[in-house]
Amino acid sequence: MSNERPIASRYGGNRNRLARSASRRGTRRPPFARSFFGHWMPGRPRLGSEFVMDHERARVLVLAAHPDDAEYHAGGLLAAHASRGADVRIISVTDGSAGHHRRHPRELAVLRRDEAREAGRVLGAEYVTWDFPDAALFPTLELRRRMIREMRAFRPDLILTHRTCDYHPDHRAVGQSVQDASYLVTVPLVAPDAPHVDTAPVVAHMCDLFTRPYPFRPRVVFDVEPCLDVIVRMLACHRSQVFEFLPYNQGNERVPESEDDRIAWLAAWYRRMIRPRADHFRAALVARYGEAGNRVEHIEAYEISEYAAPLADDELDRLFPDPASSPGGVPRIRVEKGPQ
């Protein structure tokens, strides 16, 4: 079955929206643009384009490999954006059908789609699961064109995704496909059924601690303690993963029976899993928070891709709002029971 389908104006189709953030990024070309025969490259306005100069809500698109990847790696940033009224769209590129030890793949794909939608409701975000088979993803032309159409339809200011060096082949395939699409989204004759955009978005890689071929170099680090509750409740929606498969995959750790005890257990597990990030990027935390950075224990970190639009200093707070400074704090959501 083909995963390509024409995209109509699902998000309004207003081409005047296409470069609302470009004017805030300035007019200087990124380094790679100057090396490309002097041609214009994505992320900067072309002469004659009109741009909206205001402080409108950010549009954030997550292109992740599996349901639950976005929450685990970027839940804090997504919660901060949600508290500011941003338009957030989360996409799991694969159907998640390989992530279990007992359930049938077809049953699992349906279940994980439902779990993802429930997690999206925690933030008031749309959470979409594509139908590429789990654990069988490659950076194909089909996938690249699907991403190009998605980027053109949603017109994000910021894309969050995986790095191209990662332990999971699906993560690598998604990261490579986003990288390949980041420039081509501006080329009219590529996927011509979807109107092209004049500027590329900022692309940020979600945190990992791998060192080969090169270590993660964060531009942004921040404390996610203020929104750990929201992150955990989003993760808890993915019951088939956090309460079934991951405990099995990581050594048959026993999961409590009651809902409250499960949430407490999951919170402790999540804190334990992300704790190494803070130690790894301690110097960056101290640079941001001063002496208080030595006491931060749970963080998110983001590396800016060189292959899309650069991140201007005056866009930092809009695209990467600190959860601690979000107006009214982060959302407090009670997660309803979903499919078991």
What this model shows, in words?
The chain is of the alpha/beta class and 340 residues long. It has a domain of 226 residues: Rossmann fold, CATH 3.40.50. The protein contains ten helices and seven strands. The protein has a seven-stranded mixed β-sheet, with helices on both faces. It is globular, with a radius of gyration of 20 Å.
Brief characterization of the structure:
Helices cover 36% and strands 12% of the residues. The protein is of the alpha/beta class.
Counted beta strands: 7
CATH class descriptor name of the domain at 17-221 and 302-322:
Alpha Beta
Task: Supply the helix-strand structural class.
Answer: alpha/beta
What radius of gyration results from the CA coordinates? 20 Å
> Which residues sit in consecutive blocks of at least 5 with pLDDT less than 50?
1-54, 331-340
Main sheet characteristics: 7 strands, mixed
Instruction: State the helical fraction.
Output: 25-40%
Mean pLDDT: 85
CATH-assigned homologous superfamily of the domain at 17-221 and 302-322? LmbE-like
The name of the CATH topology of the domain at 17-221 and 302-322 is Rossmann fold
Q: What's the CATH architecture name of the domain at 17-221 and 302-322?
A: 3-Layer(aba) Sandwich
Q: Which geometry do the CA atoms define?
A: globular
Strand content: 5-15%
How do the strands line up in the largest sheet?
3-2-1-4-5-7-6
Q: Between the first and last Cα atoms, what is the distance in angstroms? A: 28 Å
N-to-C order of helices and strands: HEHEHEHEHEEHHHHEH
- What's the tally of helices? 10
